[in-house]
User: Fold this.
Amino acid sequence: MKHPDLRAKAPSLAAGMAAADHGPDVQLSQTRHRAALVDGWNIEPGSTVLELGCGQGDMTAVLAEAVGPRGRVVAVDVAEPSYGAPVTLGESAARLAAGPLGPRIDFRFATDVLDPSTDFPENAFEYVVLAHCSWYFASFGQLRDTLARVRPWARRLCFAEWDLTPSSEDQLAHLLAVLIQGQAEAAGSHGPGNVRTPFSREELLRLLPQAGWTADGSRPVDTEGLQDGDWEIEACLDLVGTRERLAALPEPVRTLVLSQADVLRATAGPRGNRALAAYAVTAR
Assistant:
């Protein structure tokens, strides 16, 4: 038995999110994107799912709808429940827990799957899901270790991230903002942003066998209407405007970052910058 088209349920799912109180149109576009991802993964009703990097639960809500009342989603994040603005992770989780999807979800914040105290039985889950959270890892090695750690727990991996290869010129500003933030992080200037370790789709596919996974394939995912390009451009310009972040950079890297930021200002529009495309990968 397959679940119905999740994209048709996106409006009701989005309305149940706490962040919808602050930006209903933004929440709807984010939920529609995640519904398209889960539709493409064909996650069956009754499944058990481990979601890593659940954040405020944008993907969690869609997964909970997909698995149905007989399924279960264990949603894990290393952040504390107090993290996030204008809605914290804890506030968003509480809203979901109080709604019809609540009985299907087990939120576990401040939880690191690399900590030996975090453990699950072999094949406890049909799926492990990482959606738009892998660039937040402190290093590519940490991502490899995480994927290896969860390998015995789940039969299949469903992975989604932004694609560094732009398909059109109007995506270049988003790309440049991502690369600048990645350079700063790699050079030792650490911040609270969503981009710490950007990597390509090809690099992810090379990594999977090292972690014990065999990719079934990958597909592009449309991101039309998403606001992430604007968000990352703003985060990047905040970075270069922060004296402490710049002071932490070696002088050659600082010059490179500032020069690229000049190009970004000349390239980006004030709003409506097109987001990079995304890709989805499944593995077993």
Remarks:
- The first strand starts at residue 48 and ends at 52.
- DSSP finds ten helices and seven strands in the chain.
- Residues 24-41 form the longest helix (18 residues).
